[in-house]
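hey so u asked for the seq, here:
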Amino acid sequence: MNKTDIILDNIYNRKSVRQYTDKKITKEDLDKIIKAGISAPSGLNLQPWHFIVIQDKQTLIDMASIHEYAGMFKDATAGIIVLYDTKKTYPGLEELAIQDLSAATENILLATEALGLGAVWTAIHPVEKRINKLIKYFNLPENIIPFSLIALGYPLKKQEPLDKMDTTKIHWDKW
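ran it, C-alpha cells below
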C-alpha cells in the first residue's frame, strides 16, 4: 500500500470505540496522539488549544460521572480533554476557534486509529452543564473552556467502521 492509501484507509476505518481492555497506553503513543492534535490546522495559526491527558484511574471513573454519555471512561485506560483558550482568538471571530478544536479532536481520533487503539469523542461544548462540571473538577482558569472529552484504550474486540457513504448528500457543481 502506498502512503496515500494508508492515510485514506486510516480515515475510512476510524470508528467510535467504547469498550477497552485493561492494557495501558504507552507515554510514547500518548505523545504521538497529542502531537497529532497540536498539528491540526488553526485559523491565523492562533492554536487556541490546551490538552489534559488523563491516566489516573479514579479521574477516568470521575469523567463517567461528569458526562451522562461517558460511561466508557470506567474502562478506558486514558483520556484527553481538548480545551479552548479564549485568550487565543481573533477579536470578533472567537467562535472560529471551535473549528480549530474540532480539527484537533479529529486528528487525535485519527492518530488513535493509526496506532491500533480505540477512541470515542464525547461532546462537552456547547453544553453548559458539562462545561461547568469540568471547569469545577479541574479548577480551570476562567479563560480555559472544555471542548471535548475523548476516551482512549485498546479495543476489547474487533469492530468494523460504519459505512457512512451516502451519495445523495454529494452535489456536483450545483444543488
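The radius of gyration is 17 Å. The beta strands are 49-54, 78-85, 118-123, 144-153.
lmk if thats what u needed
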